[in-house]
Specification:
Oligomer: heterodimer
Helix content of chain B: 10-25%
Order of helices and strands of chain A: EHEEEHEEEHHEHEHEEEEE
Helix content of chain A: 10-25%
Distance between the termini of chain A: 63 Å
Strand order of the largest sheet of chain A: 10-14-13-12-9-11
Structural class of chain A: alpha+beta
Strand content of chain A: 25-35%
Number of helices of chain B: 2
CATH topology of the largest domain in chain A: Archaeosine Trna-guanine Transglycosylase, Chain: A, domain 4
CATH superfamily of the largest domain in chain A: PUA domain
Largest sheet of chain B: none
Structural class of chain B: alpha+beta
Largest interface: A-B, 63 and 48 residues
Chain lengths: 224, 78
């Protein structure tokens, strides 16, 4: 953040910390969403460095928060104006910069090692299993016989569920095989607390399917 | 002090004991590189000054000799 005029450091810090909690933001003029005030949560804000009129800080926010706007609004609150100079994402959900963050150069090198020297280790480090990208959500693990129907878009029903992480109704839930492969992502049709008391019915409504049909055998009622 | 999903621990509740058949599917940590390229993601440290879409396009071009034909991206920073 670059502040436009001289400021009192204590005053600046105090005003910036006022933004932790619920804030209202108007989307920028050039925006793909309707320009109306939207509520977002600022979870934390740590001021790391103040160097002249430049302020370096770390902020944890809800998805859809405009940081450029946040800084502009902070500048007004401080009373001297400010704008954003640089922005870097250091973490998102369960992923941080330590989780094999790769550059395009790393990727190019990894492909080279694999193609020219048959060494797949670097490429294995750059390319990660898709499950890791969504690992923070609750899961249901389903029986082998239920996998193929879910691949074709069917919902997960009670008999298909083998084990689960607790989830609430309408929450996003990952649908996994017993081997730990992602099949699909869906929305909970019920609360997981009621699962042990019922024997049939829909548990998860499938939304996006990740696994291709045909990986697991087709389900035939006669086999069951 | 953290984000909502950070460091979340989830309990696993079993309804029954059931094994999976080894004849089909593959444990994610045993996927070979071809399978991983089909079901994988890259945590990319994008250079500043180019668009996310451009980065995804360059990544696709780099991976095209390995028959990767589709790449998307997620996460917008504004």
């Amino acid at each position: 953040m670059h502040v436009h005029k001289e400021f009192d450091e204590e005053h600046l810090k105090k005003q910036m910390l006022e933004f932790v909690g619920k804030i209202n933001q108007l989307p920028p003029v050039r925006s793909n969403v309707k320009r109306q005030y939207r509520e977002r949560t600022v979870y934390y804000l740590d001021i790391l460095e103040v160097d002249g009129r430049d302020v370096l800080f770390r902020v944890g926010v809800e998805s859809g928060t405009y940081i450029r706007k946040l800084i502009h609004d902070m500048g007004e609150k401080i009373g001297v104006g400010a704008h954003m100079v640089e922005l870097r994402r250091t973490k998102v959900a369960n992923l941080t910069e330590d989780d094999s963050l790769s550059t395009l150069q790393n990727l190019e090198d990894a492909v080279y090692f694999y193609e020219k020297e048959g060494d797949e280790k670097p490429l294995n480090k750059v390319v990660q299993n898709i499950e890791k990208a969504v690992d923070f959500l609750p899961k249901v693990w389903i029986s082998d016989f239920a996998v193929d129907t879910v691949c074709k878009g069917a919902p997960v029903a009670v008999p298909g569920v083998v084990k689960f992480n607790p989830f609430k109704i309408d929450e996003w839930v990952l649908i996994y095989t017993l081997k730990g492969e992602i099949v699909a992502i869906g929305k909970a049709a019920i609360d997981s607390s009621s699962l042990k008391d019922i024997e049939k019915g829909i548990v998860i409504r499938t939304d996006s399917v990740i696994m291709r049909p045909g990986v697991y055998p087709e389900y035939h009622r006669a086999q069951q | 002090m953290g984000l909502p999903y950070e460091g979340i621990k989830r309990e696993v509740i079993s309804l029954r004991d059931e094994a999976t058949c080894e004849d089909y599917g593959v444990y994610p940590d045993r996927r070979n590189i071809k399978q991983k390229l089909d079901l994988g993601f890259i945590l990319l440290d994008k250079p500043s000054g180019i668009r996310s879409k451009t980065s995804a396009f360059i990544a696709k071009r780099i991976l095209s000799p390995l028959n990767v034909s589709k790449i998307g991206y997620s996460g917008t920073l504004v």
